[in-house]
Amino acid sequence: MSAKKMKQIDADLVEIDQDAENAKYEEQHKAKQPIINEPKLPADMIASMEKLKALQEKPKPITSMAELFQSLKTIGYNWREENKEEKRKKDGTVKTIIHRVPVRTATNFLKEQVVFATIGENSRDLDKAPLTYYDLDKGIYIKSERQIERMINAIDDQISKRGRNEVIGWLTLESKQARPEKNPYLVPVGNGVVDTKNNKLLPFSPNFIFTSKVATNYNPDVTEPSFNGWTFSHWVDEIANGNREKTTLIWQMIASVVQNRRTSNVFFALVDDGKGGTGKSTFEQLLMNLVGEDNYASLKMVEFDQQFLLAQAYGATLIIGDDNEPKGFIEDGSTLKSVVTNEPVLINPKGLTPFTARFYCTIVQSMNGIPRFKDTSGGLYRRFRMIKFNHHYDETKENKRIKHEYVANPRLLEWILKTALTVNIDEIIDTEESMTIVHETKLDNDPVLYFYENYIPELKSTRIPVKFLFSYFMSAMDAENNHQQMKQNTFTKQIKILFERDGWAYSLKNLAPLEYFNEEDRNLIIDSNKATGTSYGYLADIDRNKTQPLFFKTTDKPTK
Questions:
Q1: Is residue 152 pLDDT above 90, yes or no?
Q2: Which of 75, 99, 244, 305 is the most buried (most CB within 10 A)?
Q3: Based on the number of CB atoms within 10 Å of its own CB, is 345 exposed (0-12), middle (13-18) or buried (19 or more)?
């Protein structure tokens, strides 16, 4: 080995030894350095920091419908971006293909973002119940197919009408089935749900199954305001003419509108003399302001049997009708009665599937007189509560302010709501005024009742043949220009109820009139015939000794 080569090897060994020495030095120097620990944070501070980090990473909960729609748009956009494709054409250019969101995928997105439900009283109703969604702004469930279609459109505005219907079909099939809230002490209002039993305001929640509410906010600290000396409580006393029972009835009407889950099973009517300026329309406006424009529907009495119009009132807290025609005629009236008594009714929305549901609402109608009903059985009449507006108010600037300003004041509405929540509506009072108006209405609508009360007292007989009664009835109605086409059998059924109410009995063919029929009563028919100017008239030949259908006083001896 050459000397030059040996010299190079020695140099390399020296360099290796130096590297080893450097490493040894650094190790020894490091061992002599003091160990510096990082400051230890308190456990509660660490927990807070971790919670803050988690909140920052977790998506912010959606609290409004505007945020919901924005979220749906973002979800749809992100899906299209993630699933788009780029294809190179033959000419070398690149084409981007944007796929539309599939119907099933859109359905899943909606189920993740929105609370949907079908609501019904029982399984039969639930099978036909329409799809509703929980409205984050209102805190109640809303039936609006158009709004649901807008949600679908937010995800992808290229989904066809057929596709949107398919999404709604999936949602209807897969959404939760829920029963309406049964607790009568929970009242949904503008700013939450009032627990009237415990005097608490609870936050809205999808767990509360409400389809209507009162838009006015609940304020437990509000006091009654005064507007240039005008107060609502004084006005109510004025309408009631200082009558305590009538004042109670007015407040029970307001309370029924507010506490609509505690259905009162009565129908309220605001009546006057037809001259106007009595404050009826102002009171109606107050009720509409109280519940809010989205929570009332306008429907007159004759319109309840029109299924398409009735469907528009579904979900309303208040159904209000103005300018009812007193000379109108209601052929059926059964739907109106069912809504009043909170019974299931068939709802037939135009172009949509019919379904059965109950109305949780209060009916208030304004009228100068009640339309005539074909059904005079009285089943609906006993539900009527009439409130007469007897005062006339001049059309002054101040009175206009009452209607357009005072009864729309939020503070006044909050006070009325607060007061109405304390009113007991377990039993709605029936005033003498209301009973009198209802009875007069029944007399106008029921010719048999009118005949019984105005003509029967003139009779002296204590056994009255039905054949004679019917002839007398037809003759008397002709004399009053109220011509009837009623059959004798119908007449007998109706008047039988009235006779038995007053202590008479009905015998089909077991008794004869005998001496209990007074011949002077036959002259009453003759007089009626003269009044009509007819030569034939109505005259029944009475065989006193023949057994026949008749009414008799129970004090008579049951002999033939």
A1: yes
A2: 75
A3: buried
For 227, which DSSP code?
A: B
For helices 447-454 and 466-479, angle between their N-to-C axes, nearest 10 degrees: 100
Q: Which residue has the higher pLDDT, 229 or 556?
A: 229
End-to-end C-alpha distance for the chain, whole angstroms: 165
251 sits in which H/E element: helix 244-258
Residues 6+ apart with CB under 8 A from 547: 509, 510, 511, 512, 560
HSE of 460, CA atoms in CB hemisphere, 13 A: 8
Q: Are 412 and 340 in contact (CB under 8 A)?
A: no
The count of other CB atoms within 10 Å of the CB of residue 218 is 21
Question: Do residues 265 and 337 make contact, with C-beta atoms less than 8 angstroms apart?
Answer: no
How many Å apart are CA 495 and CA 200, to the nearest integer? 54
Tell me the chain's radius of gyration from C-alpha atoms: 40
Instruction: State both tokens at 498.
Output: 């009235």
Which one, of 67, 61, 70, lies nearest residue 155 by Cα? 70
Average pLDDT over residues 307-331: 80
Residue whose token pair is 């729309």: 408
Q: Classify 500 as helix, strand or coil.
A: helix
Q: Is 176 left (phi over 0), alpha (psi -120 to 50) or beta?
A: beta
**Contact in structure between 540 and 465 (CB atoms under 8 Å):** yes
Sign of CA dihedral 278, 280, 281, 287: positive
Can you give the length of the chain in residues?
Answer: 560
